[in-house]
Amino acid sequence: xxxxxxxxxxxxxxxxxxxRYAPSEALALAKEAKFAKFDETVExxxxxxxxxxxxxQQVRGVVALPxxxxxxxxxxxxxxxxxxxxxxxxGADYVGGDELAEKxxxxxWLEFDAIVASQPMMRVxxxxxxxxxxxxxxxxxxxxxxxxxxxxxxxxxxxxAGRIExxxxxxxxxHVPIGxxxxxxxQLVDNMGAVVDAIMRAKPATAKGTYVKNATLATTMxxxxxLDLPATLxxxx
Length: 237
Hints:
This protein is an alpha/beta fold. The protein folds into two domains: about 20-70 and about 165-235, 2-Layer Sandwich (Ribulose 1,5 Bisphosphate Carboxylase/Oxygenase), CATH 3.30.190; about 75-160, Rossmann fold. The protein is about 30% helix and about 20% strand. It contains nine helices and ten strands. The strands form three sheets. Strands 8-1-9-10 form a four-stranded antiparallel β-sheet, covered by helices on one side. The protein has a four-stranded parallel β-sheet with strand order 4-3-5-6, with helices on both faces. The longest helix has 17 residues, at about 185-200. The radius of gyration is 20 Å and the shape is globular.
């Protein structure tokens, strides 16, 4: 078992054992407890009362963070015709068709964070499923990344601005980045509120009992900070 460093011990000591913190308190504490030399990501972890083994209890969706993620998102776009120029003007990093698909296949090229595809181009993108799917890069209508050609530019702008996708994992947990430790507390509160609201709106009709069981906040290297659940759910707009 790896030994705990002094900085990590000091960070853990800042969190009161057994206490559940209000969102703003937890975020301020997460910023105070961070110790890595890089700008750590602030992550929200929510445990849901659903059974992901059943298709009708899947929880997934997209949310636009009011203040973005703090991360520069590299967007690749598969499109053609007039929407090529529109995608480029919207800030897409790579735009193309068959030549980009071949580059991904032949070179295992994955120098991007998200893909937007116009619906007609799914004939090309669909063949990349075995490569993109396991990496969470396959575009889909539910994630808002398969769109009509006229909507390509808007999808690119939203991704660049901080739109993220969330999805429950096989252990019924959702893990979502809500910003960087360098953000102001108020900015992180706004982002967290948007995420909590989106998760609540995504509640399956078949979910029974308690939907949200617990919630924890942490930076990339920092300690977990348990959130006061009523206060957290009260963030829903």
